[in-house]
Structures are given as C-alpha cells and as structure tokens.
Amino acid sequence: MPPLHDRLADLSHEEVKRYSRHVIMPEVGIEGQRRLKASNILLIGTGGLGSPLALYLAAAGIGRIGLVDYDVVDFTNLQRQVIHGVSTVGVSKLDSAEKRMLDLNPDIEIVKYNEPLTSDNAIRIFSEDWDIVIDGTDNFPTRYLVNDACVKLGIPNVYGSIYRFEGQLSVFHAEEGPCYRCMFPEPPPPGLVPSCAEGGVLGILPGTIGTMQATEAIKLLLGIGDSMIGRMMLYDALEMSFQTIKVRKDPNCPVCSIRKNEVELIDYEQFCGMPAHDHSEFSAVEDTDEMEIKSVTVHDVQKALANGADIIVVDVRDPHEWDISVIDGTLRIPKPDIQQAKNGIQAGRKLWEETILKDIPKDKTLYVHCRSGKRSADSIAFLSEVGYDLDKMYNVEGGILAWSDEIDPEMPKY
Prior knowledge:
This protein is of the alpha/beta class and 414 residues long. The protein folds into 2 domains: 39-272, NAD(P)-binding Rossmann-like Domain (Rossmann fold), CATH 3.40.50; 287-406, Rhodanese-like domain (Oxidized Rhodanese, domain 1, 3-Layer(aba) Sandwich), CATH 3.40.250. It is built from 16 helices and 15 strands. It has an 8-stranded mixed β-sheet with strand order 3-2-1-4-5-6-7-8, sandwiched between helices. Strand 7 (231-236) and strand 8 (241-246) form a beta hairpin.
C-alpha cells in the first residue's frame, strides 16, 4: 500500500466547507484533511465502542472505513449502541451502521465484512490496505486475535475496553512500542472476568472510550500530539478519574519479540477458554473446562415444578437481578458466593457445613439457572469440585431469558 502522502487527493469546495472547523486549525489544515480523506481505517465491531467510533470517523472524513460485524440489532443494544435505533432492530448491524454513517457523510466509502472475525479470515481482511485497525470488541479471544494479526502485518491497533463503570485505552504498535501481549501475555482464567452481558455497562461509558479511540486514530493519521503507544489510560466514571500507566515492550513477548512472518494465528477460543463472540445473553455454554454438563430446557423446569418433582431450582444471578425477575420457588444463591465457598473449602479454611452451600443439599437433583446459561454452568462446575454429583446437576438452557421467551412473556427481560 502506498504511503499516505502518495494517496492525497484534492478536497472539493463542498468538502472544504464541511470540514471548515478542521482546516482552520493549523494542526490539521487542508493538508491534514486530505490525509484523512486518503486514509483507511478498519473497525472491528459496530456495537458499544463501535457506535461512537463509526460516527466520529465518518464525520471526520476518513475516506474509507471497514466494518467487521455479523450481529443484528437487538432492543437491548440501544442503551449504549447509539448508531442504531428502534427502526433498525432486527436489521444487520452493518447495514444499520452504514445507513447512519452515509447519512452523516455521503462522501466516505464503507466496506462491510458480514462475518465473525476468526483466525481463518483475519489476515485476508486486515491485508486489504488498512492504515489502522481499531478494536471495538468485548471479548478476550478477539482482542488477542486482533493484536496478533496487527503485529504480523505491522498495523497499529487502537485498543479500548469497557466494563460497568471502568474503561481502558491504549495504542498497541509493535513497530514503535509494545503490543497487547506485552501487557497481557496470558488471558485471565475463564469465568474470572464477567462479560458486559453478565456484569452490565454504563450506557455512556462506550461513548467516552470510543470517542477517545477515534481521537487516537486521528492523531496517528495526522502525526500530531502524543499517542498512547507505550501507555494505557484507566478511566473510572464513578470517580471521574483518569490514570495513565506506562506499558513497556516485553523483550520476551511471545508475539512481538519474534519475526513477523513467524507469528501464527492460533485457536483463540481455546487459548482463552471462552467463546469469541459475546452472545451469552441468548445461548448457554455446552461445557466448562471440558466438563460435560447436562442441561434441561425451561419447559422441563416448568413441568418439574408443576408436578412437584423432588428437585431444587437454584438461581445463581446477583441479588439486584432478582429484583427484576424471578421464577417462583427458586433457591437464590449468587455465583460469587458459591465460588467463594468452594475456594474456602478447597483451601481447608472451612467445612461444607460452615458455608452457604449447606443450603444446597447434595442428595437432591439441582436445576441451576442464571440469566442465560453461562454463570449457571460455572456454578455447576464449582459445586462438582466440592462433592456434588455432576449427574444430579442440570444447566437450564437459556436461563431466565428463555423462561421469559417461552414460558412467561410478561416477565421483564434485561
């Protein structure tokens, strides 16, 4: 791909007017706006972070913007994914985002990749003349994949992440500084870090972090300011505080310390021990840590409760979720309490009878549910580690979301 200065094109009178607040700034000027027009940015995800990113990159006049996503707009997205609206619920997120971006700026080109990003297609997609890749995803497998592919191809990776009230921002570019693996060589253990679907996210937070990601991308393209290469910003919305820490290049990094042509894209779902695409609110996991966990449907649960079967239905969601919706007659013990009790027993600090687990009898059949099926599967795995019979425990497929969809449509969904 030719360098930016060889790709510059003149601005029309209409474009000069559109970008007038840019071109009157000496740090941007006509030349800088021409650079933006000649630039190509690939955006991974059009969700929470991707929404402000796509809007501001389009508004800034980035000439060619690639979008990678394969999801459809869901009503629950609208609390934070502001590029979409009620009119596009059920529509491809790519089509929804494209329509809004072109309405904002019809002079840009949009390239859509309606497919999940995987190790099989990442190099093909990333190799299509992109100056910068921006990671707007929400899961560890894709973050590691984006990083490794960017290192292999020498492309800057503008990173952002969000959870509840906290956000992170950095730029990883192995040509000039550290990569993501220098800071996080290994992913956290499966289940340790909840997804946004499980833990929630302040709807405004992706707007804050996504806008900062767009800012970093513009700075890189224009060659102005101090980039976040070698630094990570930590943002706490509750305290309204910003902290910046240094990120040093690891001379023994498993990815950026070797030759680029030696970097191999691996099975990142296996590496991270979790799925790459966060649809946990709609589907259950089949196993946890290779443990075969049996499952039942919400119809099985309803039938068992109606017939007075000798079972116990355990709800492992957090207490504030019980305020939203519950299934009558359930035993309610949050997953963190089960995990803490399990850890205490395994460490020899407590006996089973001294923990909250004493409320869960070992001789009963357990139907365990959460919001969607992930936390309940984890809880079954924890229980099996402290003496519960795996053959007597069943994960409720789809959790309380499935109960609302298939049993009680009047039950609130979240």
